[in-house]
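REVIEWER CHECKLIST
Item 1: Sequence provided? yes
Item 2: Single chain? yes
Item 3: Sequence as submitted:
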Amino acid sequence: VTNQLPCMRWDEPGVYFAASGWIRVKMGGDGERDYSIEATKLLANLRQQVKQKMGGQIRGVTRSYFTQMDVDEKSSEASHIENAMEQVVESFLNDTEEDCRELGEMDEAGYCNLYMGILVKKEDVVNAIVDGLQESKEIPSNVKDKLRADEDAFRDSAFKVFDEAVEAGQIVRGSNEWYEMIDQLYQVDAEIAEATRELEEFQNAIND
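Item 4: Structure as written out by the authors:
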């Protein structure tokens, strides 16, 4: 059984959304190089992963909001609320920074893997939604008044949606399936590294 890749982060029901990944970066001869562009791309990818995970649950929070605030889902008011929620979540994720960053060992070609992981606390998401809806210019004042009056109930409802969400195909950490997944990740890692090396050798041969 292999060890896990660096910066692996895992969803924790009711607590965190998580995402992990890596990208190949070219280092200098002394192991130093500015890889900020690659790091930015990787972070954007991880944010997108979390956004996809959150998608269904945020829709559930929205529907819960409609029920609690007695809002017709087909009304223009509902459309404004949905747009506001999407904007709040998008803005929140764009401000999310990495929880972990590590560089792997540099190979003979001067490349190494940049590993990164992020954690998004579900409580922070709920707080951002509540604050964002209150500040939104798209939502009518009477709806904001309802939210303000029943803010605690809305928070409880939102957390319930998160807690009850069941992610299809979830793999339990430490299970046989989990270890098989880690082995597969390492195999893919090695195959990509080898393919990258072969491509560089081919390009060098053409240039020569």
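Item 5: Key structural point noted by reviewer: The chain is about 60% helix and 10% strand.
Item 6: Recommendation: ____
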